């Protein structure tokens, strides 16, 4: 088995034939496809009900960009990991998707086996990119990390509970899992995360994880 947790995928693409082909390939490989959507609004509407652990997202949708959809999915109470599958391999698109919270980025020229491998690896929390794009993302990550370390202002003080929640977020646990681990309400976890984001002037879960990793809180 690739993971002790079932992979539950939501496929979002506005081209029906492509969307159905991806869903079929995943299904034939034993991956559970819990839903499909042709636009971002439907994806955000059904995601809380079908509870995907991973979303395969096109970069260009009729009602919003894949970047906007990625940010919306990451903001959910139980956010799925996001793998962008796009016709575009432009550096700006890749970096925008990663900054919004995408864990992986493949161009649509990728083969079936490459897609299936990426789905399984992204589900485990690995960062997966089409060859040639990984160096671009790593370079940007290092640039941002260096800029953050060079800031003169000291980091705001977090409460012990906020730090505890931050450690578990950095380990990749979903809010529900954190709530169970700490024996607190799901809403309380969300409140701690939001308070931490506000204190640190961060915008999403990905920036929060990067902050925690930079400070060794993921150990």
Secondary structure elements and pairings:
Layout: E1 8-12, H1 16-28, E2 32-37, H2 40-50, E3 54-57, H3 66-74, E4 81-86, H4 91-100, E5 104-107, H5 112-123, E6 128-129, H6 134-149, H7 160-170, H8 175-182, H9 186-200, H10 205-214
Parallel strand pairs: 1-2, 1-3, 3-4, 4-5, 5-6
Distance between the termini: 26 Å
Assembly classification: single chain
Specify the biggest β-sheet: 6 strands, parallel
Indicate the percent of residues in helices: 40-55%
Strand content bin: 5-15%
Radius of gyration over alpha carbons? Answer: 17 Å
Helical segment count: 10
Class of secondary structure makeup = alpha/beta
Overall average pLDDT: 83
Domain HTH luxR-type: 151-216
Domain Response regulatory: 8-123
Organism: Nocardiopsis lambiniae
Pfam families: GerE (PF00196), Response_reg (PF00072)
List keywords for this structure.
DNA-binding; Response regulator transcription factor; 219 residues; 6-stranded parallel sheet; 53% helix; globular; alpha/beta; 6 strands; 12% strand
Q: How does this structure look, described?
A:
The protein has 10 helices and 6 strands; from the N terminus they run E-H-E-H-E-H-E-H-E-H-E-H-H-H-H-H. The chain has a 6-stranded parallel β-sheet with strand order 2-1-3-4-5-6, with helices on both faces. The model has no long low-confidence stretch (mean pLDDT about 85). InterPro entries: CheY-like_superfamily, NreC/VraR/RcsB-like_REC, Sig_transdc_resp-reg_C-effctor, Sig_transdc_resp-reg_receiver, Tscrpt_reg_LuxR_C, WalR-like.
């Amino acid at each position: 088995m690739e993971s002790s947790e079932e992979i539950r995928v939501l496929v979002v693409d506005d081209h029906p034939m492509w969307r159905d082909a991806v869903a079929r390939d995943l299904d034939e490989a034993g991956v559970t496809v819990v839903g499909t959507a042709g636009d971002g609004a439907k994806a955000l509407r059904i995601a809380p009900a079908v509870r995907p652990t991973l979303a395969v997202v096109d970069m260009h949708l009729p009602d919003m960009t894949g970047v906007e959809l990625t940010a919306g999915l990451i903001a959910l109470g139980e956010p799925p990991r996001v793998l962008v599958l796009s016709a575009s391999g432009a550096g700006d698109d890749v970096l925008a998707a990663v900054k919004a919270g995408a864990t992986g980025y493949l161009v649509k020229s990728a083969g079936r086996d490459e897609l299936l491998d990426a789905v399984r690896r992204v589900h485990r929390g690995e960062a997966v990119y089409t060859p040639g794009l990984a160096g671009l993302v790593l370079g940007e990550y290092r640039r941002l990390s260096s800029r953050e370390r060079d800031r003169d202002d000291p980091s705001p003080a977090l409460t012990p509970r906020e730090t505890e929640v931050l450690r578990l977020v950095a380990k990749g646990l979903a809010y529900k899992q954190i709530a169970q681990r700490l024996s607190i309400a799901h809403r309380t976890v969300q409140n701690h995360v939001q308070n931490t984001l506000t204190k640190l002037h961060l915008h999403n879960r990905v920036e929060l994880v990067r902050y925690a990793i930079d400070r060794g809180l993921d150990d």
